[in-house]
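== Folding task for one protein ==

=== Format: two labelled lines per protein ===

==== Paired sequence and structure tokens ====
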Amino acid sequence: MRVLVIHNPSSGPHTGDIEDFVRSAAQPGDEFVIRLTTSLDDIGPMTADAGSFDAVVASGGDGTVSSVAYAIRTTGTPMMAYPSGTANLFVNNLGVATEPSALARTLRCGRLAKLDLGELTYVDDAGRERVKGFQVMAGTGYDASIMKESEGLKSQFGQLSYYLSAFGIPNPTRAHFDMTLDGTAESFDGICVLVGQWGWVGPQFQLIPKSDPQDGLLDVAMVKTQNATSLIAPVIGSIFSGGQGVVDHNIEVRHVREMELRCDPPLPMQFDGEVIHGAKTPLRVRALPGALTTFVDELSPLYATASEQRAR
């Protein structure tokens, strides 16, 4: 078995655990190739030969995982996400066991599930078109501001940094959004737009209920509140609702294949927790149905419909 490991050693508090995973997973005759990166821009070249491997392991936070997933989307090689980042929302939504030995077993014996990816296109400040892939959620406005404010806090506070940053921005920029959703124009005033594949965005916090990462659609959440403080009650309600999701008439959800967005004033953007520096809206997003093949174990809700691995 040939396995390519893309590891981001600066991604979070559990980066050293990847060595335990490799020791647990490797068997005589295997070849594990480990490549280190601290820049998401390096992941494309690092995975150029991914098609020659039996599996690719993406070790890092959600930004690293989604960047690897997007880079190998046309190779047919399955990817395993190793959760060594701050939030690890992809793995948490996937519902698999996260201990190194359990993930090693899943690599050898787990099933393979097909998932959708999202693709975000924008123009940077130098006028160059850029493209990013995302798996959990991308967005513009308040959420991107939270990610930016949390950048200097993650090493000290971990996932708590996102909540601290959110409470530190009670009055985010309110903008006028003009969107085209599958060819249909829609406008509103609000503080952010989120585009996702999964509904869970934190422990016990489900923003979009019944999200389906296998339906070929993107979930677009339009947050129309006047300020951030008006979100406190619905968020707390979601946490104690047993997974029913945020219920608020100021949050509307659409399910689309593609979206174009402009807003006034232009706002910052993020994908899977990574702030896009040197660029603001407009943006385009589209769904890439079934673009990712990933490993799941029997704890995952996707296990029952996943396929068996081919013999190696």
